[in-house]
Amino acid sequence: MKLIDGKKTAQDIRAEIKAEVASRTAQGVRAPGLAVILVGEDPASQVYVRNKERACQDAGIRSVPHRLPASTSQEELMALIARLNADESVDGILLQLPLPKGLDADRCLLAIDPSKDVDGFHPESVGRLVQGLPGFVSCTPAGIIELLSRYDLPTEGKKAVVIGRSNIVGKPLAVLLARPGRFGNATVTLCHSRTADLAKECREADFVFAAIGRPRFVTADMVKPGAVVVDVGINRTEQGLCGDVDFEAVKDKCSAITPVPGGVGPMTIAMLLKNTLQSWRQRLGLC
Ligand code: NAP
């Protein structure tokens, strides 16, 4: 069994980004800029934002925090997004979700300039992904494909099951896996809570991607011997953090697996930095 080390892979990617930024800025090019908007006091969001800011600083990306009170109005938030859209030093805009009650996240996401949509949540980015056009891909599914590629686990011609149909993970991941390419070209089944026989779907799959949000939901009897198992879940239980896959039972049955923590999670931030780098290159004509 191969353990897919997302922590190490994410460190490698962050080091690559850091090296590119350092070499360009040494030539006088301005550093990439990521604006991070956090509204309210949600403790989990505060941790996520702090981690993203730290990762930016490490990589030489200028992170510009905008911490707003929960009482912020929709119009104030829209005005800030408009200012950041117009700011030439900002390459990416990240709106940390969820927003406090009373604020319309969809309206805000729609207002972000798609050329700065480094989270890949804008409908234009999603449309581009579905149509196979260049654009930003949301960070968690992009990180999963990057892991498959760096561990040389091609999905071409294979059967892939994605469990979970969220807009941020399951749906875009299913589209990526069905794209042409060595780390695409899969025959994809997108499962959810209304799937008639989920265990049977999983047992037939060469690749299982679990993005459900239920601790140890995927058990050994659901996995075909030799399958590749990617666990997106992050569940806080009394015994600590665990994924959507029963890792201890499944690890001996599969050919490769991502652990939780240390699998997909660290890749999400690495891909946010990569998307910011891509936007910066495009804006400054560095491609
Ligand atoms: P989500 O919006 O919470 O949706 C969960 C999905 O799982 C839904 O599509 C739901 O089906 C499906 N589901 C729930 N119970 C099921 C069941 N019994 N059988 C089959 N399908 C079932 O999902 P998410 O935001 O993608 O998050 C999923 C997990 O990934 C969470 O643990 C989250 O914390 C984690 N996550 C991790 C990262 C990372 O960076 N590693 C990033 C994002 C999310 P229905 O649509 O039918 O309700």
What report would you give on this structure?
The chain is an alpha/beta fold. The protein folds into 2 domains: 30-113, Leucine Dehydrogenase, chain A, domain 1 (Rossmann fold), CATH 3.40.50.10860; 139-265, NAD(P)-binding Rossmann-like Domain (Rossmann fold), CATH 3.40.50.720. Helices cover 41% and strands 16% of the residues. It has a 6-stranded parallel β-sheet. Helix 1 (6-26) runs parallel beside helix 10 (264-284), helix 6 (139-150) crosses helix 7 (170-178) and helix 6 crosses helix 10. The radius of gyration is 19 Å and the shape is globular. The two termini are 38 Å apart. NADP nicotinamide-adenine-dinucleotide phosphate binds next to helix 10.
Rg, rounded, reads 19 Å
Largest sheet: 6 strands, parallel
Helical element count?
10
- Please state the overall shape, judged from the principal axes of the Cα atoms: globular
What is the distance, rounded to the nearest whole angstrom, between the alpha carbons of the first and last residues?
A: 38 Å
